[in-house]
């Protein structure tokens, strides 16, 4: 290992041997591990992961930060074992618990895609897990984390206090509480149950809600010996540190090392754990030999614990359990937390206007600067004079070198398909671009000639730092051939675009959501991120990001964007020749995982308006009517 924290390269022979591991036959597996440690050079370590995981044909998620690494990877067991050997040779990973489990290969592509198990995503982050979504709260020092107990030690304590024999317990029977650090949808299908011992289930939607729950229930924790558990252990690290940081009365915090996964490996009959362990990969859940079912269908109440249908609450997008008999694509579901808050569902059919029509495509060019303020609206008339549900108003941001008028024209099919549920509002970006063209010699003169006809002003949300700013209304030969990766260089102009959009929103505060295409999607994500930083949360109820990418502007990595989001893009290499599917997947990964919907298609750099893609977009939008 060098000073960067990255591993040294292997020999050519060993490299070739490792590269061949991922491609051969063999059993499939999933590997989970995390390590809190000071990483001297996180970018170098992330680059190593990117290179070696791809060489071994691994998929999944890797998060690298200055405070350590968190990884969930899938692939051939032999390749995963090779990866473990590689990482174990780095002293940075001394003492790491590599949890490797054999399993079936992903068979449901939709589930695998939603869990991030169709590709590899390596991201640099500021912190491995975001415990506190409030930026004003100080993240607890990980050195405060509770004492690790092995599965056997954890079981022994539970057994002692559960039977009234407290010789092995860290405290008396009445002084022990068991605390689940997971989300409600995980607890629904599996949890620890110890007779005569109080178990606390916070019933939170997301991990960042846990500190508030702890703050509101300190009296249940003060003076107790707290036995914490989660899926694999990483969430308990920061949560236990948060509890112990409260000082006197909160010193005795213990956590299950290796999480439920290690416990079920040690106690295949389930021990004190009932039901199934929810996991964040294509397996969805892992059970014990007990084979008992704790979950129930949200609709009919029958015994059920299968999340493979990926049904979600219409309001907050949290996963819900709905049995196969009750599943209906025209029905909305409301989780128990939303019901407590008085939120109801609204049923609406999404199977309408499904005729295939021309798709949207974005011209690819280069560009330049100025300000405009045009707003164009696409409204749909009422149908037969009958009373209509209030439509969603969606602010639409065009792509690079487009304007509100041609974007409206190119999305006319989309507007028609959504006319019963949405009103699309189009605006020009603030940066006016010069009239440029790629030179093509004239047949007669053998000299480049500009396009014929009147030039129409085009705009951009972000521009390249070295872009010249011509305001003259005549054609200019492009400085260079079109570069499909030009969007990676467009890093200027965000402050002007953000201020401009905020002024539009201030004038018309009735926008329900935002839709962006290509650079417009990148800008929409930047807008939501900046609103979250400034106001605590985005000002929209939802966002739709089509053929998007993470613009290299500022820092995306402090915490996920807390907004229900739909990401629509060409899946697989080559389906979108302008924005790689990997970039669109990376943008989707910057939003809250449990509230993110992905639609992949094979139709290029467009917004598809034919089934089944338009149906899934309607389903998403109907959640907010």
From TrEMBL:
Chain spans, region Disordered: 1-23
Domain Rhodanese: start-end pairs: 172-272
InterPro entries: AB_hydrolase_fold, FSH-like_dom, Rhodanese-like_dom, Rhodanese-like_dom_sf, Rhodanese_C, TrhO, TRHO_N
Coiled-coil ranges (or none): none
Family matches, as PANTHER family: THIOSULFATE SULFURTRANSFERASE/RHODANESE-LIKE DOMAIN-CONTAINING PROTEIN 2 (PTHR43268), THIOSULFATE SULFURTRANSFERASE_RHODANESE-LIKE DOMAIN-CONTAINING PROTEIN 2 (PTHR43268:SF6)
The protein's name: Rhodanese domain-containing protein
Species annotation: Triticum aestivum (Wheat)
Taxonomic lineage: Eukaryota, Viridiplantae, Streptophyta, Embryophyta, Tracheophyta
């Amino acid at each position: 290992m060098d000073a960067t924290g990255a591993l040294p390269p292997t020999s050519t022979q060993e490299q070739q041997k490792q590269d061949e591991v991922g491609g051969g036959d063999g059993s499939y597996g999933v590997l989970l591990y995390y390590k809190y440690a000071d990483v001297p050079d996180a970018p170098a370590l992330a680059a190593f992961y990117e290179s070696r995981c791809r060489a071994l044909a691994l998929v999944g998620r890797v998060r690298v930060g200055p405070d350590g690494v968190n990884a969930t990877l899938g692939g051939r067991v032999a390749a995963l074992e090779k990866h473990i050997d590689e990482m174990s040779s780095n002293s940075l990973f001394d003492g790491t618990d590599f949890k490797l489990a054999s399993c079936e290969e992903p068979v449901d592509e939709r589930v695998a895609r939603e869990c991030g198990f169709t590709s590899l995503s390596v991201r640099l982050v500021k912190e491995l897990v975001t415990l506190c979504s409030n930026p004003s709260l100080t993240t607890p020092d990980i050195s405060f984390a509770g004492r690790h107990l092995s599965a056997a030690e954890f079981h022994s304590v539970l057994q002692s206090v559960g039977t009234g024999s407290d010789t092995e317990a860290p405290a008396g029977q009445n002084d022990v509480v068991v605390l689940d650090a997971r989300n409600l949808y995980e607890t629904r299908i599996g949890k620890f149950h110890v007779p005569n011992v109080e178990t606390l289930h916070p019933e939170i939607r997301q991990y960042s809600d846990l500190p508030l729950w702890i703050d509101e229930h300190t009296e249940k924790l003060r003076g107790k010996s707290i036995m914490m558990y989660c899926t694999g252990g990483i969430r308990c690290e920061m949560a236990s540190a948060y509890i112990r940081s409260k000082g006197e009365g909160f010193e005795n915090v213990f956590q299950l090392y290796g999480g439920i996964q290690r416990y079920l490996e040690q106690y295949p009959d389930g021990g004190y754990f009932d039901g199934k362990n929810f996991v964040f990969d294509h397996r969805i859940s892992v059970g014990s030999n007990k084979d008992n079912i704790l979950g129930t269908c949200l609709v009919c109440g029958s015994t059920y614990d299968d999340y493979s249908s990926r049904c979600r609450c219409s309001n907050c997008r949290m996963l819900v359990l709905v049995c196969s008999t009750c599943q209906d694509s025209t029905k909305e579901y409301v989780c128990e937390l939303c019901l407590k808050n008085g939120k109801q569902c609204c049923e609406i059919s999404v199977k309408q206007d499904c005729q295939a029509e021309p798709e949207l495509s974005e011209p690819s060019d280069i560009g330049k600067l100025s300000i405009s303020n045009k707003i164009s609206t696409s409204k749909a008339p009422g149908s037969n004079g009958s009373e209509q549900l209030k439509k969603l108003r969606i602010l639409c941001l065009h792509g690079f070198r487009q304007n509100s008028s041609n974007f409206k024209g190119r999305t006319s099919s989309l507007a028609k398909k959504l006319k019963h549920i949405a009103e699309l509002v189009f605006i020009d970006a603030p940066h006016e671009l010069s009239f440029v063209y790629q030179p093509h010699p004239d047949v007669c003169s053998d000299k480049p000639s500009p396009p014929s006809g009147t030039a129409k002003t085009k705009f951009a949300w972000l521009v390249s730092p070295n872009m010249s700013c011509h305001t003259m209304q005549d054609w200019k030969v492009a400085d260079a051939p079109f570069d499909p990766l030009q969007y990676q260089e467009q890093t200027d102009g965000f402050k002007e675009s953000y201020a401009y959009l905020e002024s539009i929103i201030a004038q018309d505060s009735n926008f329900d959501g935002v839709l962006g295409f290509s650079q417009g999607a990148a800008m929409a994500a930047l807008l939501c991120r900046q609103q979250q930083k400034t106001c605590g949360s985005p000002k929209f109820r939802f966002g739709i990001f089509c053929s998007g990418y993470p613009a290299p502007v500022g820092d995306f990595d402090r915490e996920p964007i807390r907004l229900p989001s739909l990401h629509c893009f060409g899946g697989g290499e080559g389906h979108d020749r302008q924005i790689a599917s990997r970039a669109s997947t990376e943008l989707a990964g910057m939003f809250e995982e449990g509230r993110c919907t992905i639609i992949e298609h094979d139709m290029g750099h467009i917004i598809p308006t034919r089934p089944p893609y338009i149906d899934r977009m309607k389903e998403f939008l109907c959640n907010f009517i």
